[in-house]
TrEMBL record:
One GO process term, biological-process aspect: negative regulation of cholesterol storage
Protein name: Peroxisome proliferator-activated receptor alpha b
Family annotation (PANTHER family): NUCLEAR HORMONE RECEPTOR, PEROXISOME PROLIFERATOR-ACTIVATED RECEPTOR GAMMA-LIKE
Family: Belongs to the nuclear hormone receptor family. NR1 subfamily.
Amino acid sequence: ERRVGVQSVESQSMERQSVRAGEGPSRVAQASDHEGAGNLQRSRGTPSVRQVPCHKGLRAQSDPLEVIQKNLGEAEIRIFNGCQYRSVESVREITEFAKSIPGFMNLDLNDQVTLLKYGVYEVIFAMLASQMNKDGFLVAYGAAFITREFLRGLRRPFCTILEPKFEFAIRFNALALDDADIALYIAAIILCGDRPGLVQVGPVEHIQERVLQAMDKHLRGNHPDRPFLFPTLLQKLSDLRQLVTEHAQIVNTIRKAEAHTNLPPLLQEIFRDMY
């Protein structure tokens, strides 16, 4: 870990990413056909807190408050755009993960796309919890840490984007799930048979039932002293849906108000069809 200032956090979050959206009727369906996506992995351990120091290089002839406000404004846009580009990578990774679920590739192609469109952000926020603690979250693949205090200091509505995710993450992390638990949970999220627009609901529900049975059996063996863990995780599914709905509303508000924000085409398609 290293101490990071606001400007270094901004550059870390951008990740020098180049987004190339897929062509054709659905970019979600083709997301994994682009650059090879890595396996879903979760950073483990509790990150320590690094405070964000003040901006450097303020000119003597300038009003320091005006300079700081200008730099923070740039930080807000860069952090927002950086998060969107990282989300595109996550969609590709989740698509690859979904393909590995037994039976998923046998589903109707339109249903595969629908399940991914409605499930990817729920999966992203479930996975994001592992990068968070009550004080902040890891970025740049664990190379930097942005404090929650810094995020709360951003102007509205940027300051409201991640706060609900912190609250969810604190509760979710208290369940102390391991990687196998999370993998089964993600599969259950993706294979929800009540997604709008499914063509063939029966096959989806059949696969989901098998995944839920496997998850229940695994949790009983992995956490024998916690018999209520399985129903608790099922209840979290509704929390994730609410989280995604609120997130979409905030993103749409920012896009309308901020000319320099950028939502990649892949994410535009997801939000357009869902909300």
